[in-house]
Description:
Elements: E1 5-11, H1 15-26, E2 33-39, H2 46-55, E3 61-64, H3 71-81, E4 86-89, E5 95-96, H4 100-110, E6 114-124, E7 130-134, E8 141-144, H5 145-155, E9 165-168, H6 184-193, E10 197-209, H7 219-236, H8 246-262, H9 267-272, H10 274-296
Parallel strand pairs: 1-2, 1-4, 2-3, 6-10
Antiparallel strand pairs: 4-9, 5-10, 6-7, 6-9, 8-10
Helix pairs in contact: 1-2, 5-6, 7-8, 8-10
Amino acid sequence: MQPKISICIPTYNYAHFIADAIDSVLSQTVNDYELLVIDNCSTDNTEEVVLGYLQEGRNVKYIRNEKNLGLVCNLNRCIELASGTYIKILCSDDLLEATCLEKMVQVLEANPKVSLIASARQLVDRSLNNLGQLAYSDRAELLPGIGAIRKCFFVGNLIGEPTAVLFRKKDAIAGFDPKYRQLVDLEMWFRLLEQGDFAFIPEALCLIRQHEEQGTKTNIKGFIYVDDQFRLFDDYADKSYMGLSYFQKLEARFDIAQALWKLDMDVSLKKAKTTEYHGLCLYYMLNIFKKIKQLLFGKKKF
C-alpha cells in the first residue's frame, strides 16, 4: 500500500547524529509513512547505525548510492525514490517534534491549493540545548505563494530549511536545481510557491542543529551564498508577479554586489578562492555600470 508521507533522510558522514533523526521519525503520532535513508556513500559507520534499525524490524528503508552524487543530486534522489503523496526531507542532523507530520498533513489536506507548508524552527546546539527560534511569522499564515516569494526575495529564506517544510510530490517532480549551491532550497520553495499557496504553522515542529561541521558556517559558503543571490535575482526579478521597477532591480543588484565586496574572507578563501572571488566582484560591479549606462541611453532592458 502506498504510504501517505515519505520522510527522506539524505545523509553523508553523520553517523553520530542520524540516530536522533531516525528516532524522531519513529516517535511521530502518525504511522502512515515510509522512512527512507539515502546514504551518499558515507565513509563513517552510518550504514552500521541504520542497519541496526532494520535488524530490529523498524520501519526504515536504507538506500546507499553507488557513488557520491553531491548534495543537490542526493536531494533529487530523495524525491525520485519517495512513493508517498507528501514529502518531508529531514536533514540527518535535525529532528522532528512528535506531532510534526500530523499537524502539517492536516493543514495540507484541509487546503488542497497549498503547495508548501512550513513551521517555525527550534535552533539547538549539537547537544540539543536551546538556541532560540526562527519563524516566517509570529502567527499562522495562509497566503498566495507569490506573496511569500516576494517577501523572501529581498529578505532571505524566512521559510526555512528542508527539515522545516512539507510538500506534495506531484508539485516537486522537477527537483532541486543543481546550478544553485547554497540557496538551492529557497529556489525550490519559489518554484513550489508558483504553483499554489503557502501555509505557515507558528509552532516549532522541528529542531535544527547548529554545529561546526555544517558547511554553511564557513566564509567560503558565504561567498557562494552571495553568488547564488545574484543567480536567484537573475532567475526571478523579471517575473511579472514580482512587480519590480527598473530602479528597484538596479538597487537590488547594487545591494548584492556591495554585500559581495564586504564579505569577510577567511584564510582559506584568500588562498583558495582569490581569483574566483575577485573575478565575480569585478563582474557584478561592471554589471551595475552596464545597467546605469542602459538607463542613461534609454535602453531599459534588464
